[in-house]
Amino acid sequence: MTTVLVIGATGKVGRAVVNEALQRGFTVRAQTRNAKRAQRSLPANAEVVEALPTSADELRPLVAGVDAVVLTHGGDSDGENNFYAVIPALLEALDGSDTHISLMTLMNASRSAGAAASSYDFIEWKRRAERLVRASGHPYTIVRPGWFDYQGPADHQIDLRQGDLVTGQPGVDRHHIAQVLLEGAVNPSGARRTVEIFSKSGAPVTDFEALFATTTADPDGALDGTLDTHNVPLAEEPERVQMDIARFTR
Predict the structure, then answer these.
(1) Is the Cβ–Cβ distance between 8 and 178 less than 8 Å?
(2) 203 CB contacts (<8 Å, ≥6 apart)?
(3) For 237, left (φ over 0), alpha (ψ -120 to 50), or beta?
(4) Mean pLDDT of the chain
(5) Is 98 in contact with 35 (CB distance < 8 Å)?
(6) Which of 14, 120, 167, 218 is the S-S candidate for 72 at Cβ 3.0 to 4.6 Å?
(7) Confidence of residue 61 (pLDDT cuts 50, 70, 90)
(8) How many C-beta neighbours within 10 Å does residue 177 have?
(9) Of 213, 159, 219, which Cα lies nearest the Cα of 190?
């Protein structure tokens, strides 16, 4: 892998991904809505590119020639238009290529917010984005982080889990998130993985192929993470999502 496009490059994790990728010697395209502002917070050797991430037309020149797209975009509001809508635009721009997609969502994304959906609607849209990425047929790594920067001072080791079972406020170093998003694209055992990521006490990980090899790949054609158990039936998803999945499944 030589070239990476980072969507959401100026966020807390996005900046960590840009720095980590540059340290590995990759060429980095850093997507932003405001290039002038982004250039103040990103390294000078990152190629800052201004584009609306929900526009396939604007993303199309950005994805040309890239080996992987890392998405760290979106916050905890308007999950449909600020987060989910980026995925169909990206898939349209990629136009059937085999570009790797590394997507950051969040822990408990597989679950429905149920009665609290009005307050946690953004979680629902992150699950829907995951499903669309899996359906697309692209190689992918889906990373569900714990709570940013809640890790302890000795938590230098990456802790990968599956099944979306962890609750509470387990911490994760944002640099660990960046590493796993990138290494998922580089290492063969990182493909078709859905993992939760936390930080724990111990030595830093140096062998990411071995780390991913301890996890289980999602089955071919699956819409959900391999060990997820609280899955929402597709028929209960919004019509927009069902139509997108039908459109982009391959």
Answers:
(1) no
(2) 156, 157
(3) beta
(4) 94
(5) no
(6) 14
(7) very high
(8) 26
(9) 213
Whether the predicted pLDDT of 138 surpasses 80: yes
Residue 120: C-alpha distances to residues 11, 17, 112, 126, 228 (Å): 21, 26, 9, 11, 19
Say how far apart CA 72 and CA 58 lie, in whole Å. 18
Q: What are the pLDDT digits (tens) for 169-205?
A: 999 999 999 999 999 999 999 999 999 999 999 999 9
Model confidence over 197-225: pLDDT tens digits?
999 999 999 999 999 999 999 999 999 99
**Segment 95-105 mean pLDDT:** 95
Residues in a beta bridge with 199? 158
pTM confidence score: 0.96
User: How far is 87 from 136, CA to CA, in rounded Å?
Assistant: 10
The H-assigned helical ranges of 111-193 are 121-135, 174-186
Query: Has residue 167 got a pLDDT over 60?
Result: yes
pLDDT band at 230 (very low <50, low <70, confident <90, very high): confident
Neighbours of 1 (CB within 10 A): 14
Q: Who contacts 235 (Cβ-Cβ below 8 Å, separation ≥6)?
A: 242
| H or E segment and range at residue 119 | none
What are the percentages of helix, strand and coil residues in the chain, rounded to 5? 35, 20, 45
Q: Are 49 and 31 in contact (CB under 8 A)?
A: yes
Tokens of 205: 């990980």
Beta carbons within 8 Å of 78's beta carbon, 6+ residues apart: 122
